[in-house]
Amino acid sequence: MLFEKPKHHHHHRVSEFQAVVLAGYGSSNRLYPISEEDNMPKALLPVGNKPVISYTLEWLEKAGIHDIIVVIQAIGSAPQKLSAYLRTYTGNVHCQVVSVDEDDETADALRAIKDKIDVNRDIWMLNELMPCDLITELNPRDFFDAHRVCDPTFSALFYEPGSTESASKDDDLLPYVGIDSTRNALVYKALRSEDEDFSMRMSLLNKFPRVRVHTDLQDAHLYIFKRWVIDMLVEKENITSISKDLIPMLVKCQYQKKLVEREQIEKYSSTYENLLANALSLSTTQSADIDDELFMDDPVHSSFKSPIKTYVHVYRGGFCGRGNTTASYNELNRYTTKQGASITRVPSSAEVAPRTQVGNDSIIGDYTKIDERSSVKKSCVGAHCVIGKNVKIANSVIMDHVVIGDNVKIEGCIICNNAKIHEKASMKDCDVAGGYIVDKDSQLKGEKLVAFREAI
Question: Does the reported pTM lie above 0.90?
Answer without folding.
Answer: no
